[in-house]
């Protein structure tokens, strides 16, 4: 089994072994929530007998609390407990289905650059091609281009440029530099869509025409028709536009037929002011003519289609005319208005229990409403196709820069580099809150960021992967430190992400054979600045100068762990990491970890196999498809581990995280999940396939992270603060 990911893994297990050898010669010099208050008594009856977390050292939380990093642990004396929730799955996934970016079962690669040609996750036995010099990473303010910022990067020994110099237009580098500048200029103005513009006239109604179901039923997997494919086989793209009439953001998921390049389905997800969503699903035939439109309101988008029980309005088109306007309301009430007797007869045969109205028999007001809706939805469908397909494909790389106390750093220089050679592509700045956002083309490529401002040391983020079907790449927060400062004594420990210890008070201890630290974030191949050795209890001590480090932990029989550690005065002095046991053939392991606050985050895995659906979560820890919630943590940090034991490329999977601590109290505007430092890592038998970081500084309790369809994982990264109607997240 192979997995195609939206991220290019920088280090394989064999490379990790090479890094271990490297650690022997690296200079081991000095380098640098509280549990949720009880929910209702009824909900606190859960997990009385489940394992309790081992107590951690208390650490002072930085200010502001909304910027707490995942490294800032504090003692959690108790557990947040949930009542066992039983949900009817039919409320959940009435027809799952949509978007992706890791391939499981194909040799097609996805990362930028060539690693085993097109398969970036194939196990390989190459060693690091070079070791970067141990020069301290450069620092430079937004208004200062110090020579120090040309220090070598921690990856592959490439040298970063401190000033942007445009390459010739006819070169790949020059083209990319200009493209990124253009995208950022365009993004500032925002691409817009006018759905209401009357650009297409309604066709002439044919009294003998009835609806052709080929596109809809073939795309959704119910029938096979020449020229169309199941949407699982479509090429996927994601775009984002602004509704010109409302100013609302609309996310688009586009299914492109691989045979003719036509987008047979476009899903528009509009974020309303109320916090809910208006979803419109457009289906187009091979001539790009609309055939079916399904529109409905919902709290959070679950990929699916218009099964008969789902509320919403359906518009069935033929020859640019509306053949049927169908509405399903909450409670199951259904009605249809057919444009002609032929279509009405088709409806009677298909939906005999529905109320059917015939256009010609209705009064003038009803006919006028039908005609108006016909023009509105027809033009919305055409305007969507033409505008969306011509819109630029772009992905935003975004995150925050903080100082040691957790305050946003404004006006810091944010430099974007090509990951493979350190060529400077674009430069921006953080805003007053410390936020940065840089737009890049939505295509498979690897980037690196440097964030710098005087008098702080610069910090780098390596191996930022972007894909063609990705809207946003959220990064873990960057912390900048002034030079100097006393070394900090750190104690590190590695735990098993899958198996509890004998007393079930925590996870089994894993003895790491090597612990290496490199400067920066996601720095997997650069100079090792410190090493640590585990003792018989599995703990290891290391001294670190204040700064941000990538920790690499290697243990026999486990996937190599890469994680971020922020070393600071008055911060944590202990840190436990969690390693997934080596993943077996045909399996996928998903590991969630986070910080001290909130106490209880929940993993949710949804699966669809044919017409059957399942939901794995703490209320139902295993399903008939071979999926398990192996570890469910309720007292901060994690891990929460979900295993797909019988992965199938024909199945559809969706993984989400829910903030139970705040969701159960209906505190849906909480920032705790967003600022928890939550990280999700996906492992296959090829190693680490993808890593996702929660978006920072946003209110909400539901984080939809990725989907897998046709063996390919695509990041979703939707984030919701409105879950009132889909209360199965937190209630029976």
Description:
By secondary structure, the chain is mostly beta strands. A 10-stranded mixed β-sheet has the order 1-2-3-4-5-6-7-8-9-10, sandwiched between helices. A hairpin with a 6-residue loop joins strand 19 and strand 20 (about 505-510). The protein is globular. It starts with 12 loop residues before the first helix and ends in a 12-residue tail after the last strand.
Which keywords apply here?
mainly beta; 36 strands; ten-stranded mixed beta sheet; 732 residues; five-stranded antiparallel beta sheet
SSE blueprint and pairings:
Layout: H1 13-25, H2 89-92, H3 172-189, E1 192-193, H4 214-219, E2 235-243, E3 249-256, E4 263-271, E5 277-284, E6 290-298, E7 312-318, E8 321-328, E9 334-338, H5 341-350, E10 355-358, H6 364-390, E11 394-402, E12 413-418, E13 424-429, E14 435-441, E15 445-452, E16 459-466, E17 472-474, E18 478-479, E19 488-500, E20 507-510, E21 514-519, E22 530-532, E23 539-544, E24 547-554, E25 561-567, E26 574-579, E27 588-593, E28 601-609, E29 612-616, E30 627-631, E31 640-644, E32 652-659, H7 660-663, E33 679-684, E34 687-693, E35 702-709, E36 712-720
Describe what is shown at a glance.
With 732 residues, the chain is mostly beta strands. The strands form 7 sheets. The protein has a 10-stranded mixed β-sheet, with helices on both faces. A 5-stranded antiparallel β-sheet has the order 30-31-27-33-34, with no helix packed on it. The model is unreliable at 6-102 and 105-156 (pLDDT under 50).
């Amino acid at each position: 089994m192979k997995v195609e990911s939206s991220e290019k893994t920088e280090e394989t297990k064999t490379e990790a072994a090479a890094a271990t050898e490297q650690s022997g010669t690296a200079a081991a010099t000095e380098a640098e929530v509280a549990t949720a208050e009880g929910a209702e008594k009824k909900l606190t009856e859960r997990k009385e007998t489940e394992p309790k977390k081992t107590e951690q050292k208390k650490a002072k939380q930085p200010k502001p609390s909304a910027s707490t990093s995942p490294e800032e642990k504090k003692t959690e004396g108790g557990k947040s407990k949930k009542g066992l929730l039983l949900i009817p799955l039919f409320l959940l996934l009435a027809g799952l289905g949509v978007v992706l970016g890791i391939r499981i079962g194909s040799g097609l690669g996805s990362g930028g650059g060539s690693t085993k040609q097109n398969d970036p996750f194939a196990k390989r036995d190459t060693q690091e091609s070079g070791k970067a010099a141990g020069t301290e990473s450069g620092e430079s303010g937004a208004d200062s281009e110090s020579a120090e910022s040309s220090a070598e990067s921690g990856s592959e020994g490439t040298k970063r440029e401190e000033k942007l110099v445009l390459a010739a237009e006819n070169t790949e580098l020059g083209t990319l530099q200009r493209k990124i500048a253009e995208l950022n200029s365009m993004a500032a103005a925002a691409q817009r869509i006018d759905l209401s513009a009357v650009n297409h006239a309604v066709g002439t109604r044919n009294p003998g025409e009835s609806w052709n179901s080929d596109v809809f039923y073939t795309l959704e997997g119910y029938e096979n028709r020449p020229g169309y494919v199941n949407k699982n086989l479509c090429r996927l793209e994601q775009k984002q536009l602004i509704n010109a009439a409302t100013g609302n953001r609309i996310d688009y998921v586009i299914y492109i037929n691989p045979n003719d390049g036509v987008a047979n389905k476009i899903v528009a997800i509009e974020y309303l002011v109320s916090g809910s969503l208006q979803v419109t699903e457009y289906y187009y035939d091979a001539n790009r003519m609309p055939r079916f439109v399904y529109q409905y309101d919902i709290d959070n988008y679950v990929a699916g289609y218009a099964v008969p029980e789902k509320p919403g309005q359906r518009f069935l088109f033929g020859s640019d005319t509306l053949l049927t306007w169908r509405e399903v309301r909450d409670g199951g009430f259904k009605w249809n208005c057919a444009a002609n007797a032929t279509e009405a007869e088709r409806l009677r045969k298909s939906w005999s229990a529905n109320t059917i109205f015939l256009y010609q028999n209705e009064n003038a007001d009803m006919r006028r409403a039908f005609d108006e809706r016909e023009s509105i939805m027809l033009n919305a469908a055409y305007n969507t196709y033409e505008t969306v397909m011509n819109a630029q494909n772009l992905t935003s790389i975004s995150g925050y820069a903080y100082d040691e106390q957790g305050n946003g750093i404004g006006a810091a220089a944010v430099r974007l580099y090509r990951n493979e050679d350190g060529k400077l592509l674009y430069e921006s700045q953080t805003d007053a809150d410390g936020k940065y956002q840089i737009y890049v083309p939505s295509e498979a490529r690897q980037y690196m960021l440097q964030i710098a401002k005087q008098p702080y040391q610069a910090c780098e983020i390596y191996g930022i992967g972007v894909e063609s079907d990705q809207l946003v790449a959220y990064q873990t927060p960057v912390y900048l430190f002034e030079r100097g400062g006393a070394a900090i004594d750190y104690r590190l420990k590695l735990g098993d992400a899958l198996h509890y210890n004998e007393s079930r008070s925590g996870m089994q201890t894993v003895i790491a054979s090597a612990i290496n630290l490199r400067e920066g974030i996601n720095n997997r191949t650069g100079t090792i600045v410190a090493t640590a050795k585990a003792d018989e209890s599995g703990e290891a001590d290391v001294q670190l100068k204040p700064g941000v480090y990538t920790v690499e932990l290697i243990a026999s029989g486990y996937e190599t762990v890469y994680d971020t550690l922020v070393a600071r005065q008055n911060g944590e002095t202990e840190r436990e990491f969690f390693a997934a046991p080596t993943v077996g053939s045909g399996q996928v392991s998903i590991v969630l970890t986070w910080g001290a606050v909130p106490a209880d985050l929940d993993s949710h895995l949804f699966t669809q196999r044919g017409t059957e659906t399942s939901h794995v979560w703490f209320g139902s820890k295993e399903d008939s498809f071979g999926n398990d919630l192996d570890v469910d943590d309720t007292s901060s940090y994690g891990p929460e581990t979900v295993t797909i034991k019988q992965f199938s490329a024909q199945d559809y999977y969706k993984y989400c995280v829910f903030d139970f601590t705040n969701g159960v109290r209906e505190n849906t505007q909480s920032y705790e999940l967003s600022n928890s430092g939550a990280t999700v890592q996906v492992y296959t038998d090829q190693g680490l396939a993808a890593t996702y970081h929660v978006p920072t500084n946003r209110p909400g309790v539901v984080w939809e992270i990725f989907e897998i369809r046709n063996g390919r994982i695509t990041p979703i990264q939707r984030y919701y603060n409105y879950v009132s109607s889909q209360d199965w997240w937190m209630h029976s």
